Amino acid sequence: MSDPGNYAGSTDRSLGQLFASATAEMSALVHDEIALAKAEVRQDVKRGVIGSVAFIVTGVLILFAIPVLSFAAAYGIHNLGLGLAWSFLIVGGAFILLGILLALFGLAKFKKVKPPEKSIASAKQTAAVLQGVKPHPRPVVTAAAIERAQGSTLADKAIENRPVQDKAAAVARSST
């Protein structure tokens, strides 16, 4: 048997040991969750790639079939007693008519597309709220403060000659 003091429910362990144990267990749990997520994503990506390849091959085969079926339709119409030229014109006209119908369908769908009104309203509301916000003032570090904190060196003197600014504060100041 193992030492009963090693169990999480043991009362002999100090608070530091309990905290270290909890931290280690939490870290292991997070690592296991990450590993599980990676495995699931890997599996989903593999399925997605296989599905995409299947759709691409299907599209290529359909593209190869269109001319063959067009010739078959034209020769089928020719066998009904129409001239070969008229048969090919009928098949070509059918393709043109189908193309026009699909273009009109696509145009109707494009006309129904509207701007994302909720997102625009939300962005405007966020911008209005942020315009009234002032950045938190940051203290300017002076050369005297640096010298007091540590001995002054040549590199420190080069740094002290310009004030320290936060990039977010600089962006906030430039946008107002």
Task: Write a structural description.
The protein is mainly α and 176 residues long. The protein is built from six helices and no strands. The radius of gyration is 36 Å and the shape is elongated. It starts with 14 loop residues before the first helix and ends with a helix.
Number of DSSP-assigned strands:
0
What is the helix content? over 70%
- Give the biggest sheet: none
Low-confidence stretches: none
| Assembly classification | single chain
Briefly say what this structure is:
The chain is an all-alpha fold and 176 residues long. It contains 6 helices and no strands. The protein has helices at residues 15-79, 84-111, 117-131, 143-149, 154-160, 167-175.
Chart the SSEs and their pairings.
Elements: H1 15-79, H2 84-111, H3 117-131, H4 143-149, H5 154-160, H6 167-175
For the structure shown, list the relevant keywords.
mainly alpha; elongated; 176 residues; 6 helices
